[in-house]
Write a structure and sequence with these properties.
Layout lengths: L7 E5 L6 E4 L13 H9 L5 E4 L15 E12 L9 E9 L8 E3 L2 H14 E6 L9 H6 L5 E6 L13 H9 L5 E5 L18 E4 L5 H9 L3 E4 L4 E7 L2 E9 L1 E6 L5 E3 L7 E7 L6 E7 L5 E3 L3 E2 L2
Parallel strand pairs: 2-3, 3-4, 4-6, 7-8, 8-9
Antiparallel strand pairs: 1-12, 2-10, 4-5, 5-7, 10-11, 12-13, 13-16, 14-15, 14-17, 17-18, 17-19
């Protein structure tokens, strides 16, 4: 996790190269519309550097080395065993870096305690576990607060959030978790299944992650595991650093820069003449135990820093 270790820390560095990629994609190996090669070419041809293939209960074993880095993964399912229209029917977890030869299989849960046991099992099998589309799972806040052990949680899912739940992102859930001292990383992904028509309304290219790494699978996954990335649906964070008590951020042109913490008031930065801005600062008050930054562009698209834990 990202932890401040000195009076000067750089979290996003404008002097470093960042790779663009999606960590949640399906193919004809499960319920997607395209083969592994086809979906890799779709993303490669649209400027992506890497793509995670995460089919349901099928760990990606294929190889590909034609201009885009393939991240091998799987989406493991935990199915809710009760019949309740108010609840989601499953919780899904993308898993990477197997610790052993894995045989993915559907798991079941009746309550949060059961789900925690399933997460614990995934941690025995994999070194990197992502909680997918948490809003779609319809868990209560208290249930989310009781869960531990995943490394990453999706703040944005292009398939299951706005189009199926009517909510753009999991910002409110993330702040609830942060305000209760939970620690994790956040990602934004497409959960792409298809179809793809080459238009602007496809269920792809909605959420992506900018990762500070070399363009190979090991380096990318190491960077994600250590928090050297940030999620976005459009705008970019060019630089984020702390100089003594002041956090400073540089961005592509946006309408708002918001610094959140556990304090009641956030710092909401915008131009009084409604012009776009590219910089912002936040001075620590002294009782924050986390700082988290969100930027919003003119079209409503967002990017988020990783939560920065001050304790």
């Amino acid at each position: 996790m990202l932890v401040i270790l000195s009076d000067r820390e750089v979290y996003i560095d404008k002097n470093r190269k960042y790779l663009k990629g999606n960590l949640h994609t399906h193919t004809t190996n499960s319920d997607g519309d395209y083969s592994v090669k086809e979906v890799l070419n779709i993303y490669k041809n649209n400027g992506y550097d890497f793509l995670g293939i995460t089919d349901h209960e099928v760990f990606c074993e294929e190889e590909y080395n034609e201009g885009i880095t393939l991240i091998h993964g799987v989406e493991e399912s935990s199915l809710y065993v009760r019949d309740d229209d108010r609840r989601g029917t499953y919780a899904h977890f993308n898993c990477f870096i197997p610790k052993m030869k894995v045989k993915p299989e559907v798991k079941f849960y009746e309550n949060a305690s059961d789900l925690q046991k399933n997460i614990d099992e995934l941690n025995k099998m994999y070194s990197l576990v992502q909680f997918n589309h948490p809003l779609f799972s319809r868990l209560t806040d208290n249930e989310h607060l009781s869960l531990n052990g995943y490394d990453v949680i999706e703040i944005f899912n292009n398939k299951d959030f706005l189009q199926e739940t009517g909510i753009y992102s999991a910002d409110t859930l993330i702040r609830t978790l942060l305000n209760n001292h939970k620690k994790f990383l956040i990602s934004a992904n497409d959960d792409f299944h298809g179809p793809y028509y080459g238009t602007k309304i496809d269920r792809c290219f909605g959420g992506f992650n900018m990762v500070c790494a070399d363009n190979n699978e090991e380096s990318i996954l190491d960077a994600i595991k250590s928090g050297n990335f940030y999620p976005s649906t459009g705008p970019l964070i060019l630089d984020l650093r702390r100089e003594e008590k002041v956090f400073k951020i540089e961005t592509t042109p946006v309408k708002r820069i918001i610094f959140y913490s556990n304090l009641r008031r956030c710092k909401n930065i915008f131009d009084l003449n409604d012009e776009e801005i590219t910089q912002g600062e936040y001075e620590l008050k002294g009782s924050e135990y986390y700082v988290w930054v969100k930027i919003i562009d003119n079209s409503g698209k967002c990017a988020w820093s990783q939560p920065i834990y001050l304790d």
